Each structure stands twice: as C-alpha cells, then as structure tokens.
Amino acid sequence: MISVQFEGGKELVAALGTLSKAMSKKILIESLKSAAEPMRRRMGAMAPKGDPQGVNLSQSMEVMTSRGQDALEAAVAVGPTKEAFYGSFQEFGTAHHAAQPFARPAFDSEKEKALQLLAAALWRELAARGVNRGTVLGGPVDDSGGGTGSSGLGEGSFQYKIRKPRMPKGGIS
C-alpha cells in the first residue's frame, strides 16, 4: 500500500494557517483523496485479475483516510481493501510466488499527476474560502503553477511511504 503525504510549501502552509485547524485538515484530506483517485484507478488496472468467484484484487483498490504522524498531519492510503489482504503477496512476492508489482509502478507513473491535482484542489478549496496566494504573501503572485517543479505546491517537497498491508490476526490458514 502506498500513502502520499505532502510536507512543506511555504505558500500552502501559510494559506492553510489562515483557517481553523479543523477546516485546514478537512481541506487537506478531501484534496488528498481527489488527487489520489487516478493512482487508485491505475493500481486496479495493473493489479492481477483474480478468480471472479473470490475477492478480486484488481477491483478492491480504494483511497482511505490514514493516520498522520501527528494531529496536524493529513494522509491518505491507496491500495487494496482488507478483504484483499493478499495484495502484499502479489506486490512483494513470497518464497513460492514471484512478485507481481502493481502498487509501486502505479505510484511511479501517477505521482506527478497526483501532485498537480493536489495543488489545484488545495488552491481551489482555499480560493473558495477567500484565501489566495496574493493575500497570504501580501502582494501579487504569479498563479500559473510556479513553485517546485510544475506542481504549484510552492517551495517544499513531498514524501511517500510504501507500507506492507497488515497481515490478518492469526496469520493465513
């Protein structure tokens, strides 16, 4: 399972700081969810197609709210549902089964799009509440995307983690 978290971005941090903590977190979570949707679709397309009678890995992908490292951090996780716990076996392989990666390749192919969607969603939500780059920084700002690369996120960086899904209690029988 891959989760994407954004850290930094002076403009976004300042803009989100003008709102209440609860509103900022709500905007972050909703923006992360919408930005992760193309990655969810790509994971489903790349995942092995399973037995139509059982839980199908390719159809079990979802975007879930995930716990951040602290109360102010927002995070989402993209990957198979708990019913498709065997997704980690497909992704990483086992002693008896070669890896069939789907999560990491999907992340690699969609991460730039996700960052662009995240920036657009955040600024759109902030603008709807009367907060824009110019008001945050105290003057006119080029809203053409700027910042680090072409993401429009401002200065800063993002990081991701690849986490193995939890094994069911009691192991697999």
Which helices and strands appear, and what pairs or packs with what?
Blueprint: E1 2-8, H1 10-17, H2 21-46, E2 61-66, E3 75-80, H3 87-92, H4 103-128, H5 133-137, E4 156-162
Antiparallel strand pairs: 1-3, 1-4, 2-3
Helix pairs in contact: 2-4
Please, could you describe this protein's structure?
- By secondary structure, the chain is an alpha+beta fold.
- The chain has one domain (2-162).
- Helices cover 41% and strands 15% of the residues.
- The chain contains five helices and four strands, in the order E-H-H-E-E-H-H-H-E.
- It has a four-stranded antiparallel β-sheet.
- A hairpin with an 8-residue loop joins strand 2 (61-66) and strand 3.
- Helix 2 (21-46) runs antiparallel to helix 4.
- The longest helix has 26 residues, at 21-46.
- The two termini are 22 Å apart.
With helices defined by DSSP (H or I, 4 residues minimum), what is the helix count?
5
Low-confidence stretches: 139-165
The best one-word shape is elongated
DSSP strand (E) fraction?
Answer: 15-25%
Fraction of residues in helices? 40-55%
Mean pLDDT: 76
What does the main sheet amount to?
Answer: 4 strands, antiparallel
Total number of beta strands: 4
Gap between N and C termini: 22 Å
Structural class category:
alpha+beta
